[in-house]
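4.2 Preliminary Data

To establish feasibility before requesting continued support, the project team ran the inverse folding procedure on a target of 327 residues. The structure was first converted into the token representation described in Section 3, and no sequence information of any kind was made available to the design step. The complete token record follows.
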């Protein structure tokens, strides 16, 4: 019975191992960063993202959306997209004016930095949830929950006051609700489908080894670089045979410009113990064929020197001598 249960487990919960789970983004959100230097100078930056992949920019001068991919419009028509652009344009304009006019009323001191994030995401079970959060001066200020503006504790009395005022604008609440609960989910499903060729592609990593700055006398820092892979989930470990080395440190996942990722795994070891270690890279694009790089087999500069440059120099010297003799 127990055996049957174990055999069934992978069927019931496919992708229990995170590397095998559905890959590719599951959310869309827009980010707003508004900076007010003084009562007359303001700048708005806007962008649109599928998880951590940017697909829209915002040109604040004419007030237009910049599609960064041919499929950035998802399944929205040109008219529908123009309409959204108009909504953002009016919003940014109104927002800037409102902040500038009310800065003193809310006792906000320049420079003022406002950040906002709003969007929607696929949740387990197939439902789509929406979210909206705002920050002032780098601290949480408010969020939207259902139809209500919820002041964040860090926002203090100012956030409470602000939420009270905004809740009186039924028109604004209705528009935001429509954007978050209707437009965003419809757009998300469309754009995930329109971009699936690129979003669900598999790109194999390249890996190489190097040594980092020595952590101390008699010690080596082994560095395993893994770059150019997509999607993001990856597993990089330092091994001795089949034994994972517990001291492995991982860098953050850093983006390359082409929507692929870079990761570094380092291991601090005594110089005498480096031989026999290997770096093992597991990624969905490799189809179970992990990349394994062994420490201690790199072609050293010294080897290149003795094997190629030295013989060439000797040959040149011989030729020179031969010519000199002939003349
Ligand atoms: C407002 O800030 C901008 C940007 O920092 C600056 O160039 C400008 O001179 C400032 N204006 C005033 C009236 O202080």
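Position-by-position output of the design step:
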């Amino acid at each position: 019975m127990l055996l049957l249960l174990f055999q069934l487990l992978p069927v019931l919960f496919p992708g229990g191992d995170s590397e095998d789970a559905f890959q590719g983004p599951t959310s869309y959100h827009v980010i707003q960063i508004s900076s007010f230097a003084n009562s007359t100078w303001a700048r708005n930056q806007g962008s649109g993202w599928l998880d951590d992949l940017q697909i829209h920019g915002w040109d604040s001068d004419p007030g237009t959306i910049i599609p960064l991919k041919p499929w950035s419009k998802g399944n929205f028509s040109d008219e529908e997209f123009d309409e959204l652009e108009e909504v953002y344009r009016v919003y940014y304009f109104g927002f800037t004016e409102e902040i500038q006019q009310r800065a003193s009323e809310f006792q906000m001191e320049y420079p003022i930095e406002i950040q906002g994030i709003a969007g929607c995401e696929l949740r387990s079970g197939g439902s789509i949830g929406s979210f909206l959060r705002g920050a002032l001066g780098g601290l949480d200020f408010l969020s939207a929950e259902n139809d209500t503006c919820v002041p964040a504790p860090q926002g203090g009395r100012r956030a409470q006051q602000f939420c009270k005022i905004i809740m009186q604008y039924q028109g604004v609440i209705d528009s935001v609700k429509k954007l978050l609960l209707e437009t965003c989910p419809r757009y998300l499903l469309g754009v995930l489908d329109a971009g699936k060729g690129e979003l669900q592609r598999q790109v194999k990593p390249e890996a190489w080894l190097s040594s980092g700055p020595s952590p101390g006398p008699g010690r080596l820092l082994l560095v395993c670089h893994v770059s150019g892979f997509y999607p993001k989930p990856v597993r990089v470990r330092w091994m001795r045979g089949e034994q994972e080395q517990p001291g492995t440190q991982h860098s953050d996942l850093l983006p390359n410009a082409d929507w692929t990722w870079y990761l570094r795994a380092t291991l601090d070891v005594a110089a005498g113990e480096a031989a026999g270690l290997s770096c093992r890279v597991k990624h969905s694009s490799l189809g179970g064929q992990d990349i394994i790089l062994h420490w201690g087999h790199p072609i050293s500069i010294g080897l290149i020197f003795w094997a190629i440059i030295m013989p060439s120099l000797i040959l040149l010297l011989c030729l020179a001598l031969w010519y000199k003799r002939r003349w």
